[in-house]
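Researcher: Last one for today. Full complex below.
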Amino acid sequence: MSVFPLARGFLPVVHRLLMPLCLILASCLPAADHSSGPTTTVVVFKHGKLSGDPHTFSALLREFEETHPGVTVREELLPSSTDQQHQFYAINLEGKSVAFDILAVDTIWVQEFARAGWILPLDHVVLPSERESFVRGSIEAATFNDQLYAIPWYLDAGVLYYRQDLLDRYGFRPPKTWQDLARITRTILDREGNPDLKGFLWQGKQYEGLVCVALEFIRGYGGALLDDDSAESAEALGLMRALVKEGLSPSAVTTADEEATRHLFGAGRAIFMRNWPYAWTLFEAQDSPLHNKVGLAPLPSGEGGKPVSTLGGWMLALPKQAPHPREAADLLRYLSSPATQKRMALGLGYLPTRRHLYQDPALNQAKPWLADLSSVFLGATPRPVSPYYLMMSEVLQPELSAVVVGLKTPHAALRSARRQINRIRETL
Amino acid sequence: MGSDHSSFKRLRATHRHFHDSTWGLVFVVPAFLFVVAFALMPILAAGWLGLHRRLPIFDIHEFVGLANYIRLAEDGRFWSACWTTLYFTGVSVTAELILGLGLALLLDRGVRGRDRASTWERVLILIPWAIPTVVSARMWEWLYHSEYGLVNYLLEKLGFIAAPINWLGDPIWTIHGAILMDVWKTTPFAALLLLAGLQAIPRDLFLAAQVDGAGAWTIFRRITVPLLLPIIVIVLIFRTMDAFRVFDAVYVLTGGGPGNSTETLSIYAYKTLFQTLQFGYGSALATAMFVVILMLTIGYVFLLRGYLREVSR
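Model: Here's the assembly. Have a good evening.
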């Protein structure tokens, strides 16, 4: 019994296997940068993919480099799924392996990241006196213990898309209340008599987007999600279910996210849609069937309530162990400056976070609805501002989804959600 | 080469006092260490973490004993995920086994008989299994789409349904939609394993049975199934373990919705661990899952041990 002779054939095999492996590993190592001198500082900026032409944004970064000699900015893109981005940050920041200087964070993560001590307070970048120039809701979402932990980069808020041509045909104006919307939808659906035309589209899948939509319904009725007296909240959730049940919203909304509703509306197959403002540019494209047929309005509200849009969007923050905090702060200041925000808005369609830009003539020319809707964006309200918001949302998503598909009554779902959320609060 | 050989001889001579079985142990050590490092350690670490309350965001890290497991017992969402997972596993594995066996018999007949199945046919059957799960989940998401989906289109054209079915939005249909996708995807795997088993059965047995006047059904029941049983057990265990920890297929297709009606244990554990960063409770969940799988596997082995012994005799 000898196994040794095997070793004779084994060594060359190992050798052949290891060589390519070494080559692969070597190619993964950061290549030495020969073009720039040894004094170059590379600032690494982690963010998700931006929509539109990537050159527009990299041109902005090149300009920053020109005004800051010796600094190079490297963009490192994260997967497009926000869940995966959150996971990436959680693992790297908690594990203290921070190989980046700036990170883009979702509005709802700032409290969590600040509470965990993963990101730095930024009062040296944006002075407390300067906070007023930003949209109020976004500053609220970025402030933890009276200190600013992130700088609003671009903003999102729910708006109502409507088919201008269809509303005109029947002499309707955009609805102010949900009751209006239901009446208009029913009339147009009846008179058009087209089985392919649907009514009102919104995001009803079990995911974060559903929480945003539900908050808009609830707050538009004057309710508060976490109040114990839940009459308004229950009424609002009841309306969401009724829309589906009565066919004013197609059953497809119960599985729809932003893109699913955008595709359906974009094919000319719906009268109304709740979505973020990004879709407007796509509908206005020359080859879109909806070119010049789509209008934007504030979301409707309950009878006697006032419309409230949920605040979305992304912010910029500095990780605690940032390798180059000073250069990163400079880049932060540059990216959040009014001039850069304006160019982001014009070139890529991202809404600015600086209030005065909503009165900017050039921006208003590019987006004719901006002035009419400025109250929506300036008044957008964040989701519950709390370090444990993600746990809350994790409880809310299935409960809200259960209401939308008719598995639970609004009262039962709200009661169950509150019980679970209270339980989380108690244990913290 | 010659000098190499003699040096090995010398090496052997110096170690002659080692018994062969000792060498056996020595050579098992790397594999053993591998299993310890990559299977046993993580399981034990998760179990240990499950005894803690650990929320890095809130700087909470304390030993709480069995508190997480007590909370688990009272957690309605955990039990609902448990039942969803068991239902998913039970239905999909049964369907995969039956369909896989049918496919394997067809292929086996093709390989042996006059109408030889070409390599192409076998490759074609394997395609669903070769497609990455996330891709096929996205594909099925479109097939199930209530407005644009092919499934509703065909059913409507054939006159089976009057109004489109909301496959992924109706709690009753959704879990079955997910099961159908899993069956479509993994039946080829079951078929492939079973085909290998079928081809290992000596042909003489079938011929002898035919000579004795046994019909096709009797041959199948008395010869094919008993001799295939070891492979069937392997397929059952493999598929049960896979189906029980199903994650990507369902997560991409439904995200656990609507109303958590398709939330499996893996999805609940993922959301707890990686989305809300409750490391302690999430680990307790994962450990509970491991225990359930372990019990299922032991159950299989016990259930089928009698049969297996009979067959191997």
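The longest strand of chain B covers residues 52-55. The CA atoms of residues 41 and 83 of chain B lie 28 Å apart.
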